[in-house]
Amino acid sequence: MHSRRSGIKIMGRLIGLIKPLILIMLFAVTLGVTGYLCAILLTVYAAAGILLVLDFPLPFFFPASIKGIFIVMAVLSLLRGILHYGEQDCNHYIAFKLLADIRGKVFQALRALCPAKLEGRDKGNLISVITSDIELLEVFYAHTISPVCIAFLSSLFMVLFMGSIHPFCGLLAFAGYVTVGVLLPVWNSKRGSLAGVEYRSQFGMLNSFILDSLRGLRETIQYGQERTRLMELEEGSEQLSRCQSTLKKLEGSSAAVTGACMTGFSFIMLFLTLWLNQKEAIGFDGAVLATVATMSSFGPVIALSGLSNNLNQTLACGERVLSVLEEAPEVWQVSGKPETGFFGAAADHVTFSYEEETVLNDISMDIPKKKIIGIHGKSGSGKSTLLKLFMRFWDVKEGQILVSGRNVKDINTNDLRNMEGYVTQDTVLFCDTIANNISVGRAGASREEIMEAARKASLHDFISSLPDGYDTSVGELGDRLSGGERQRIGIARAFLHNAPLLLLDEPTSNLDSLNEGIILKALKEEREERTVVIVSHRASTMNVADEIWEMDGARIS
Predict the structure, then answer these.
(1) What is the pTM of this model?
(2) Among the four 105, 190, 298, 374, which has the fewest Cβ within 10 Å?
């Protein structure tokens, strides 16, 4: 794991994603600056109207009549609303466009990391990254980048305006804007950065706990663990609440200090301009305009000060998202190599370990074309791992895995996936219909092809007995089906995929002898079309094999 990035580095990486939409961002900034200036000038013109009523002379750029000032104020009010709407519309268009793009990038990254880097990974935390973490980046893209630019340009304009009244006024305005818009946000960010990271981490852990609890609801009820799970849930909720309370306290103190600073600088400007008026350095009208302008011009920088509160969580989310995007896969996909057909497979002196634990040691075996190969052995002997190496879910530490005489590292990943079908011990089903779950094996498969695959998997009669047939929903993770039915859908997928090499990991473990016999018969009938490797504990399953390899510890014989 890399060390945590600084906030500046996180923002730099996130800003880099804006390049395709930079013109829209510039347009949003232009609208925002103009809109804020309209809001500031609205109060300045109101003060000018009062001065005009009191017969004070006004600078040349103010109308000479009350009617003229009212007209200008009406125009400024209308423009403020239109410009603010346009700015927000542009910012949110950029934000949601980028969030959709980031989600796509995250899914691509997870696909590249899968399965080696995702086995055993906290799924609740991943769901939190994909959903709420990415969603919170909307604060950065819609309410951070543009407001920073708007605050800088608006403040620059106001400093020049104040400076035109008197240089001291310009310097004081500059000090106020820097304090409220820069120093306070930096101070707040440093105070709250760890709290933001802790909150997002705790939020992800609570997501994982709730997900586990929902999946294990039946077991929890069966073994009377409701109170225990409830206590753990309450404890997690309390920890999250404490994290949130810390953030809220930081937000409250930040708002109080910001308000105090804004009020303080406004009063200082008032006393400064009165002193300058006494020294006859500026007129009374200048003193009033400078003071009113100061009080009304903190809007853009106050927005920055407020951003630092949400920015702590946003940057924590950005760190988690960027960590996924930048994590290096265990196995890199291959492309651009010559196409490969299937002519058999082999393991050549293969050694493989999970970290320090050696699972396979100097394994060699040959898998001839159009043969059924059985692999038998006790649990933990590396049978399933060997199949995963043929799928190139991991790369071997020593030796090589060969398909059609070529090292799998030199075969295009798409070619390898097309040549191999893989049925795992635990079939994952999507919350969709039976037909759509089977069609995962081959996109665009016809209903007739799906039904034929189901027949080979001894599933068609069962599906036909259901009221909605192949359009029956399997529920979340297939919870409306039995273990055997889920397993047969996995086998049907493999038949539909129609790969020349079929790798089956305990394919009949959840089946009765009748259904097992039907599936094994289908495999035997297709031996002229495909090569089959079966991993199983069952002697009855091994009877269909032309050749049986025995796994013993990390060895094979």
Answers:
(1) 0.67
(2) 190
